[in-house]
Each structure stands twice: as C-alpha cells, then as structure tokens.
Amino acid sequence: MARIILEPIGSAREEALASADYEANRAAMRSRAERVIAAREEVEQGWGEKYIERVHKKGKLTARERIELLKDPGSRVFPIQSFVNYGREFEGGKVSPGAGVVTAFVRIHNRYTVVIANDNTVASGAWWPLTPEKIERAQEIARRLRLPVIYLVDCSGLFLPEQARSFPGPRGAGHIFKMNSLLSAEHVPQIAGVFGDCIAGGGYMPIISDRVYMTEQAYMVIAGAALIKGAKSQQITSLSIGGPNVHVHLSNCADFRGPDDASVLSMIRRDISLLPSSACDYYRFGGESAPPLFPAEELEGIFPADHRMPYDMRQVIARLVDSSLFWEVLPDRGKEMITGIGRIGGLYAGIIANNQLLIDHPTDAGRKRPGAILYKEGIAKISQFSRTCNDDGIPIIWLQDISGFDIGAEAEKEGLLGYGSSLIYTNSTNQTPMITVLLRKASGAGYYAMAGSPYDPVLQLSTPITRLAVMEGRTLAIGAYRTRLDDDFEIMAEDPAEREEIVRGMKEVENRISGDMDPLRSAALMDTDEVVVMSDLHAYLQAMVEMCYQGTGYRRVKNPRIWSLHDLAALTE
Asked: How many structural domains does the chain have?
C-alpha cells in the first residue's frame, strides 16, 4: 500500500537568512502590518463610542459583542471582508465601516459556522452599497463548504440615499434571499436571531432559516411604522405590528422568543450543538495537529522589503505546514513551481507555490532564468497536480507570488496559450475547495491561472505586501507611452517641454497604478476577501482547512492509500 512520506522542509531562521536582513525585512513588514491592524481597529469601532453607547442604552449588544457570546470560549473569530467600503464616503459624507455588516467564521460547539451580523452601530445596521454583495459572498462560502449559517439580524433596511447602488442589479439586495433559498435547498443549516429593527429586506432575510428567534424588543415588518403612518395615517408602532407577539404566536414567521440578546444567543448555540459533529478527527486518518517546527511568526522577516528581490518559498511553506514536514511532488519538473502535500492542523492539504529563485534553463545548459514566471513545464505540472488533488479530494492552497506568464517568441512556439487554457479549465471545473493566498505579486494572467478570485476559490487572502494588478506601475507606464519611446524605452522627444510632459505623465500613471495595488483598496472593492498580517496567515489557513473537512457526504474525500497522487509520483520517479 502507498504511504505518505512527509519530509523536513526549510531551516532555522538563522540558517535561512542573515540576522541583519531578517530584522530589516521584519521592520518593513511590521510597518505595513500596523497600517492594516489600525484599519481593522477603525472598522471594528463602527461609528464610534457614541453609537455603541446608544445600542447599550436600548438594552442591546453590538454585533461584535453578540459574536463574542456566541463563540466557544477561548476560540478565535476569523473575520472576512472586513475592509469592504474602507475609505469610501457616501451621501452627506457618511462612511460605512465594513459595509455595515460583520461576516466571520465562528467556532460553536467545536463546529465552524459562518456568522452574518448587522453592525447596529452603523446606521442601525442598514444596507449600503456592497453590503448585499458582502452578505452573499459569506453565504456562498457557507454553501461551498456546507457550513451552518447564523444571521444576527438588527437591520433598518436599505440606506435609502444610496438605494440606487444597492437595490437593483443581479447581485443587489434581493439576491440575498435567493442565496437563502439555495442554502435551504442544499440542506445547509440556517439559524436567525432577530434582535431589533428588521425592516423590508432585513425582514425577509431570516424567514427562510430553519429556526427564527426573536428578542422581546425585536420586530420584523415589510414596512416600518413611520412609512405606514405616512401611507395609511395609522397610529401604530413597528413592535405592535411585527413584534414577537405577532410573529411567534400569530403569523408563525418566527419560532421562539427570548427576553434578551444573551438568551437568544444561548438558544442558537444549543441548536448548533444538535447538528452533526465535525468530521475533522475522522479525516486526520490517525494524525494529530502540530504547529510548524519553525514559528509562523517568522514569516514577517522572510519577505524582502524590496518587492523586486527574491526569497526562498520553501522557507514560507516550512512555516505553514505541521512540524515543517512536506511531500514535494514532481520536484524535478517545472522547477519554477513547487507542488506538494503537507498537513495543516493534522489535515492534508495540497500546496501550489511560485518558486522565487533562479532556475536552470531546460534547454540551455549553464543558463538561468527567473522564477515567479509560468513556463511550459511548470504550467503542465500545476495543471496535473491540481487535477489530481481534485480527484483525491484534497483541498488546494495556492501561494501566489507571480509576475505572469513567460512571453516572447519561445513562449509562443511552445504553445503557452494552450497550456494556460488547460490550467484555467482545470481550476474552473475543480470541485475540491481551493484557497488562494496573494503573498506578494499577483500580476496579469498569472493571477488568473493560479486560482485568482475570478476562478472562484473558496477564499482569497491578501497580505500587507500584496500587489494585485495587470503589471507593475513602471511597466504599465512604459506600455501606455510606448509610441513616444524608442526601443530602449528612452523618451524620443527633443523639445524640453514635451519631454517634461511625458516624464510627468508616466510618473502619474506609475503612481496611480501603485495606489491601485494597495491591498486595503483591493479589499475595499471586494477584489480580495481579507487582508491578513503574515503572523496570522497560518491560523487562517488552519481554520480554512478544517472547514474544508468539517462536513461529510457532499464531496469526494479519498483515503490516502488510494490517492492518484501516488500514481503521478510513481510514473515520474
């Protein structure tokens, strides 16, 4: 029978990198990480202490306080889409931190769930532009991984001044309810707690859930009292027409009532305990979780401060996999790519990563060529590895740091377009969960080919040094001004004023593209799911791999004895 033999990878920090270089890299990384941490703290404050106090005066908890009561004691919450709308202003100069909703992975009774909680400190939990898309993204992740969904509803409906950017469209607010329906149709548990305002779309969101709980001051209405007063001249309150007295005892739109937030959260926790337990222990196949031999926190010092400089990707992998043990598959082919299997949290995961170091040219002895570029053999290698992981039911982690595909006459003669299309087809049709991490560069079609966001990974993470764009700013500026440059990319203009205009224009293009590469900007636009500091990357990946194995019966997971990977390795030894 075939056995999985995991071998040591990486080395101690002192052997891998000179101390001076490590400390310089670490200082540069921490500077960028602190910006991300500060932005996260800003988002988590919502509209600030004044609005937090207003929630407390109503006898309610904030969204994040509710999540703290909901989660297992001592467990960690993993937020996603934290920075949606970050830095964006709306009507009247208002902001919507996190698009007014908290979405996160939360462990309850040792099972991961997806929690979607209206931030009641931001316009009473209203929906802003991109709020629906953020909710739908969380629902889609839950659907793909069959994770229970918990809605903590405290929503005053659409933020009406911006309704044109959140109400219509194929992924507008109404699509949330289609996602509710699809989750229900596919047997994904949904539980809703209603804690306050639940107006219009907010009223529809919990109804399809398997359980709906209401607190004594919660109400669900198609239209609030103010609108009804205006339309029908009736003197009523929203609580009187849509409170628990109506919906628990008359309309049957809710199931149970509780006196306050804490009691309803306790009921939700009880419901989760009744669901099937996590399958992770079963799928560890006798293994146990272990931390990397080399601390994950050392990732902060591995990446060079200058994004143009290479580093050893195997040192990164060594700080992500259990006990720093790894089975590298096809190590002698397509050396610009690293493919292999490791355990993360005791569970098997495939890893596909860009080798940043110089590699031997396959046909020109003694010649080197840069890594971080997709060449023919590397594309074929990761296509086959990706297909084989899919066949075996192994989740795939893509560690991207890619400049793109090889270009030029040799690349075209070798048919890179065709090989690239094969890779794209593979990643588009895979059923096994794929998690994409944009470590640093995520450029051009290479970003697409390595399971970038357009190819529907279950989750895409960025880091404080991620550079997501078609190409680097300087390269793009040269392309934009190509007709005014010679073959050596020197400005051809002889007139000093014209030359100065070209220099200024190219610099403006370069600066704008560099600004667009900002990972917080990408996250604000939902081009990535979360920006994670390097010291947190291992924890996020461990949680994600556990989620991939938590459920049973909805996707193929083969015993490691009969993996197709063994056949692939045997045929290429």
From this structure: 3
Segments forming the whole domain that contains residue 503:
467-516
CA distance 544 to 536: 12
Query: Quick one: residue 256, left, alpha or beta (phi over 0 = left, psi -120 to 50 = alpha)?
Result: beta
Half-sphere exposure of 168 (CA within 13 A, CB side): 2
Residues 268 and 129 in one domain: yes
CA distance linking residue 394 with residue 285, whole number of Å: 13
Q: CA of 225: how far to CAs of 101, 153, 482, 483, in Å?
A: 24, 18, 62, 64
Q: Domain check: are 233 and 91 in the same one?
A: yes
User: Which is nearest to 334 in space by CA: 572, 76, 166, 14?
Assistant: 572
Q: Is residue 490 part of a domain?
A: yes
Let me know whether 245 and 294 are in one domain: no
In this structure, the strands spanning 337-344 and 325-328 are antiparallel
User: Do 313 and 177 belong to one domain?
Assistant: no
Q: Are 206 and 198 in contact (CB under 8 A)?
A: yes
Which pair of tokens denotes residue 45?
Answer: 């404050």
Do 373 and 356 form a contact (C-beta atoms < 8 A)? no
Q: How many CB atoms lie within 10 A of CB 220?
A: 30
How far apart, in whole angstroms, are the C-alpha atoms of residue 49 and residue 54?
A: 8
Task: Name the pTM for this structure.
Answer: 0.93
182 and 327 co-located in one domain: no
Residues 74 and 144 reside in one and the same domain: yes
Under 8 Å between Cβ of 125 and 159: no
- Cα dist from 8 to 287, 288, 304, 314, 342, whole Å: 17, 17, 24, 10, 10
Q: Is 13 inside any structural domain?
A: no
Distance of CA 52 to the CA centre of its chain: 28
- Residue 509 has a pLDDT of 76
- Per DSSP, the chain holds a count of helices (H) and strands (E) of 22, 20
Q: Percentage of residues in the chain with pLDDT exceeding 90?
A: 68
Residue 220 within any structural domain of the chain: yes
User: What is the CATH classification number for the domain harbouring 404?
Assistant: 3.90.226.10
Please give the structure tokens belonging to residue 420.
């690239």
Same domain, 161 and 212: yes
Phi, psi of 210 (to 5 degrees): -65, -35
Q: What is the C-alpha end-to-end distance of the chain, expressed in Å?
A: 17
User: For the chain, how big is the Rg over CA atoms in Å?
Assistant: 26
CB 427 within 8 A of CB 453: no
Residue 156 to residues 81, 181, 243, 264, Cα–Cα distance (Å): 21, 22, 14, 20
pLDDT(227) > 80: no
Q: Cα separation of 447 and 404, whole Å?
A: 7
pLDDT tens digits, 286-318: 999 999 999 999 999 999 999 889 999 999 999
Q: What is the pLDDT of residue 228?
A: 47
State pLDDT tens for residues 104-115. Answer: 999 999 999 999
**d(C-alpha 518, C-alpha 376), whole Å:** 31
For residue 466, CA distances in Å to 470, 529, 534 come to: 13, 13, 11
Provide the strand spans (E) within 259-364. 325-328, 337-344, 347-354, 359-360
